[in-house]
């Protein structure tokens, strides 16, 4: 198994080190190669994702990414040139984001165990395609557009994946989140696709919610959700709401999957490079470790993924919520528990 | 003062009756004319918003709307044909949504007084314009698009309004919410507009947040916000998050404003027609009463608006949170307090 590792910037390298520590404890046969990408490289060389690096990344079984960015990089550069470029080039059409309230994590909104949702966010279409433009820039007649592109091909494969995940879970419930009452064209494609595929998965019960209502119910009644499927932009927003109600971004893991297996999938914590706390050794590596769990599951090692998740579960249930996190200590504990 | 009233469907007429009760108690000179629009009319006649009715509505100083819709109307019909049609035809470019945590309202996320934000949502542009389409429908090659249109004209006027509101508030703070790192074209127009106008409002401090981060901070740190300005779709989502953290949709008021005064502005509770509880007399009319407060403010009667808001404030601080709401009793109490 060959893993490409992109530690990135800020707390990225710190949390990745702990992720690899835990990975090494459960799967010592995985061989890691490090790639220097992110804000630091861009500052140094102006490079974002050289073609040669992309080609090398393709030769791996999976990618682990920490976080990229620093305040000196203008907004959009790393996102379009690196993060989204990877998702689009490697056809990461499923952006998988579990949100579970672990024992020991205090949420004002629910009891432990009450929240266990799996968000399946589309990753290669929608408003993220970069299709749009600016006309008459810097004049009073300026017009700026953004086009959301949705294809039957793209929607079908992510909805199918969501059904497959739903049917394998105890509750077998799938919620489509969209805004079909306003975005009627795209909404219709999404709704029809869910309806059509539901015939293939009769055991799965299906619900629909508008994104505004869903963002509210994630807060007032998060326990009602099981698997969720949604478009790229709605998924970006609601998964952060889901993270907020399940202990925060420090615990939110994600996988960017090419379900076909043609390209390596990429695993990363949802949080950013957090320059404000970088270098202090106080970043919580748990989201990265949970991302390693998703990686192991994806590589066909569910028993190892279970060990990692159980270690996190146990550790969270015994953590003193008031104590300062020490990045390496959390990693040491999780590696010892999982190994 | 001439008010057009659209009670609508479900709990709409129930809450509007209480809104008018309170309005009558503070401003007996306002003359109301009722218009029958919504699901019931559509079922009966297929009509949504006849041109003649639209012309009559234009002859009023303001519109009060309850809620429209019932489960028998396909999604999108009333939204596109009535609600959004009104916003677009009457150029309601400012969608004003205050979110305040009143004394006596229990929120797991903040203490009373800690949340007092004013969301200024754009109302006539963005992904709501209905620009898009479907190609090769019902084939494996289907493509569905949605185009977000943003103009300098449209963005400038709503951002200017937000600055004007911010400068008049104690904290004088304005947060732009967008997704400039991904929606770079529209994002650039919004960012540049805020930057340019901030030179005219040097007293206002300005912040920017991506919509995903904002949706999270609305939950984990709602007290940091003062005035917010955002696009039509982001505003739809984040104002529901704001409602969820300030006592729920039963308290969320809104105004759809044509700031130029050319067309009547429209005031409505954010909640829907709630067919599940319609006819039982248990809907909370508070959001409608607060919308009446916004209406009075807009009509240049801030002292009356203050009375209405103070009545709500007092009533909420003395309500038994476990007692069932009785719609007419709440209205009676609020009318007595405000009158
Ligand atoms: C950094 C940004 C491009 C990205 C996104 O919008 O998808 C991030 O918010 C995420 O959720 O992974
Ligand atoms: C009903 C719908 C068209 C509307 C919107 O999306 O604006 C509603 O959600 C709102 O927020 O007023």
TrEMBL record, chains A, B:
The keyword Ion transport does not apply. Its EC number is 1.1.1.85. One of its GO terms (molecular function) is NAD binding. Residues 2-334 form the Isopropylmalate dehydrogenase-like domain. Pathway: Amino-acid biosynthesis; L-leucine biosynthesis; L-leucine from 3-methyl-2-oxobutanoate: step 3/4. It comes from the Bacteria. Homodimer. Catalyzes the oxidation of 3-carboxy-2-hydroxy-4-methylpentanoate (3-isopropylmalate) to 3-carboxy-4-methyl-2-oxopentanoate. The product decarboxylates to 4-methyl-2 oxopentanoate. Belongs to the isocitrate and isopropylmalate dehydrogenases family. LeuB type 2 subfamily. This is 3-isopropylmalate dehydrogenase. It comes from Modestobacter caceresii.
